[in-house]
Amino acid sequence: MRMDIHNADVPVLCRACEARHRGICGALDAPELLRLGRTSSRHEYGAGTTLVAAGERPEHCSNILSGVVKLSKLLPDGRQQVVELQFAPDFLGRPFGDESDVLVEAATDVRLCSFPLDMLQTMMAGSAAFETRMHRQALRQLDDARDWMMTLGRKNAAEKVASFLLMLSRHVRPQQEGYSTSFALPMGRSDIADFLGLTTETVSRQLTRLRKDGAIAIERTRHVEVLDLDELKEVAAGGT
Amino acid sequence: MRMDIHNADVPVLCRACEARHRGICGALDAPELLRLGRTSSRHEYGAGTTLVAAGERPEHCSNILSGVVKLSKLLPDGRQQVVELQFAPDFLGRPFGDESDVLVEAATDVRLCSFPLDMLQTMMAGSAAFETRMHRQALRQLDDARDWMMTLGRKNAAEKVASFLLMLSRHVRPQQEGYSTSFALPMGRSDIADFLGLTTETVSRQLTRLRKDGAIAIERTRHVEVLDLDELKEVAAGGT
DNA sequence: CGTTTGTTTGAGCCTTCTCAAAGGCTGTGG
DNA sequence: CCACAGCCTTTGAGAAGGCTCAAACAAACG
Fold this sequence. Notes:
The structure is a homodimer. Chain A has 9 helices and 11 strands. Chain A is of the alpha+beta class. Chain A has 2 domains: 12-147, Jelly Rolls (Sandwich); 155-236, Arc Repressor Mutant, subunit A, CATH 1.10.10. In chain A, strands 1-8-3-6 form a 4-stranded antiparallel β-sheet. In chain A, strands 2-7-4-5 form a 4-stranded antiparallel β-sheet. In chain A, helix 4 (117-126) packs across helix 5. The radius of gyration of chain A is 19 Å and the shape is globular. The A-B interface holds A 71, 73, 75-77, 79-81, 83-84, 94-96, 98, 100, 102, 124-125, 128, 131-132, 134-136, 138-139, 141-143, 145-150, 152-155, 194, 196-197, 237-238 and B 71, 73, 75-77, 79-81, 83-84, 94-96, 98, 100, 102, 124-125, 128, 131-132, 134-136, 138-139, 141-143, 145-150, 152-155, 194, 196-197, 237-238. The structure holds a DNA duplex.
C-alpha cells in the first residue's frame, strides 16, 4: 500500500484498492475518484456465474478486485474457445460501445467494483490519462491475444499445457514480478482445454506427463506446485 | 472522396488519402494535418520486404495506403504464426513504445505514409480525438485477434481455410461493405498456412476441395473467385 | 455414505502432418 | 519465341498426434 498526500480526500473504499495503484483508477485524482466512487459498488459472484452473456451489451463495467474472469467465444455448434483470462486488477468492460461477441464468466469466485458504462465515457472524456490507461490495457490484451495465437496455432499439446502453467505462474500472484512456484488452477480441465484448443483428456494426459517427468506436482487436482521451472520453460518453448 | 470546407488548407498529399477519411488522420484538423504532413513521407516496398524485424523498435510509424502487411511471431525453432493481416487504411505502429515482439513484413507490394514515432506521441497528447482513433483501432485489432483465436483453436482445416477466404473477401476490397466475390490472395500457400496454423499441403488440399465442391474457382494459384458464398459461409461455421 | 460431478486412463480411429515426387508458373538467356 | 532453371503448388502414401468413446477413479456435496 502506498501513502498518498491526498489520501484523506480519497473514498474509503478506494484507499486500499489495487485498481487505484496498478489499475485504471490510478489515472484519476481525488475529485475524480470521489465522483466515480459515488456511482460505483462492489459485488461478489461465485465461480461459474455469467457476468455478461454472449452478444449482450452490459450496462456496467468493473475493476476486478480479486479472482479470475474468463472471456470466451462460442461457435453455433457449441464449440468454445476461451480468448482471455483476466486477473485483478484488470479492468473489465469495453469503451465505445462496439462490443464484440464474447461471453464473460467468473472462472473463480470474483469480487468486482462496478460502475455504469456511461461513467466510463465520461471519465475518458474528462481525463486523457484515464483514456491512456484504457488504451494501454487494450494494447496489453492485444499482446496477450497474439501470444496465445502463437500457442494455439503452432504449439503441440505438451507445449500448450506447459505454456498455460507458465502463464498462470506469472499472473496468479498479483503485483509480483517473476514466477510463482505454487498456485491454484483457476478452472477445471475442460475450461483449460477450451483455452488451449484441446480436449479435457489431452490436458489431463499432458499434466500427468509433466507430473511423471518431475516438472510439477498436483494436489487434489486443483493445486499445482512447480518443481522444475526450467524444465517447464523448455517444454513450453518446444525444447523437447 | 469527400468535400471539405477547409480542403484548401489540407496538404495536397492528404487530400485524396483514404487514411484521412477512414484512418487515423480523420481525427486531425487542417493545422494538425499540416504539421504532421511536414514530417511525413511516402514509400513503397516490394512484397516480402521486412518493415520491422522481430524485437526491433522502429523509429517510424505509418498509414498503409495500399497493399497488405503481415504481422507474425516466431518460435526459437523457426515455427511461425501470422498474428494479423493489415489492410489500407490501417495504421501501422505502436504507441507508448512498449513494443511486443512481432515481425512486420510486406505481404504484397505496399505503399506507406510514414512519420516519426515521436510525432505519434505528440499527436496523441495534442488531440484526444486522435488518441481515441488509435484506441479504437487497438480494440478492433483485439476483436480480430480473438476471432482468430477461435479459428485457430477450435476449427478444423476446412473451416479454417473457408474462414480465411471469407475474411479476405471482406477486407481486400477497401471501404466497401459486404463480400467481394473475386480477389487476389495477398500471399502464398505457406504464409496462409502460417496464418491458419496448418501446413502448406493441408491448405492446398482444402482449397482444391472447395474448388471441386464448386464453392470457389482458382486461377493461376493467386486469384480466387467465390462461386457460392453461402456454401463458403456454411463450411466456415462448421455446417458441413 | 451415496450421489453427482469432474478427472484419469485406455484403446482405436481420424485428421492432419511428414516426406516424397510430380506438375505449373515465372523469369532468363539463348 | 522457346528452353531451361528455380520456386511454388499440388498430389500421394504413410506415420503420428490428438480426438472419440468408454470405463474406472477421485473429489465434492448433500
